[in-house]
Amino acid sequence: MNNEAVETKQTNDSATDVTEVGVVDPLAPADAVSQEEFERLKAERDSLIDRLARLQAEFDNARKRETRERNEFRDYAVSGAIEQFLPVLDNFQLALKSTASTEQLRTGVELIVKQMEEALRSLNVQTVETVGSTFDPRFHEALEMVEKDDVPDHQVIEEVRRGYRIKDRLLRPSLVRVASNSQQKEA
Q1: Nearest to residue 88, comparing CAs of 106, 114, 123?
Q2: Are 88 and 112 in contact (CB under 8 A)?
Q3: Of 102, 123, 144, at which residue does a domain stop?
Q4: What is the domain range of residue 84?
Q5: Does residue 143 share a domain with residue 79?
Q6: Residues 163-177: pLDDT tens digits?
Q7: What does the buried/exposed string (b/e) look like for 65-89 if buried means 16 or more CB atoms within 10 Å of the residue's CB?
Q8: Which residues of 32-42 are buried (b: 16+ CB within 10 A; e: fewer)?
Q9: Residues 162 and 100 grouped into a single domain
């Protein structure tokens, strides 16, 4: 059935017959549907629209809550890591204020380094294996190749800067010097 039904209405307007043409309201009850059925369907539609609006608002609130909780969790995780390093910072400040001998300062700094390594270990940060291992570009960054006949070719001979990783994720590669053994290359 066509939604645009034509309705004609004749009116007497100062002795002239005027015919008005209009569009039938698609929500108006049709002859086949009773007024009571129409009102029930209209109420059901309004109820579903209201329910949809509430569900959309509920979804938006859940998304905002999840974002807020994720940010709070990240902040909490960062604060847990920082707490591990505060005692290390305190000890560095004490060392700077110290008037001890050079040997005593060196011993103090060595203790602070051990404390820092322990803090990193508690956060599951591991050092990258270097000296004595074969050069691996996934974990090592070569500073230079050094000609050495007494060690195997591509073996790490010196660590310039320590590398770190958390499980399988590399945080920073080790900066190393690598042996170049020309006798092994020729053989």
Answers
A1: 114
A2: yes
A3: 123
A4: 23-123
A5: no
A6: 999 988 999 999 999
A7: eeeeeeeeeeeeeeeeeeebeeebe
A8: eeeeeeeeeee
A9: no
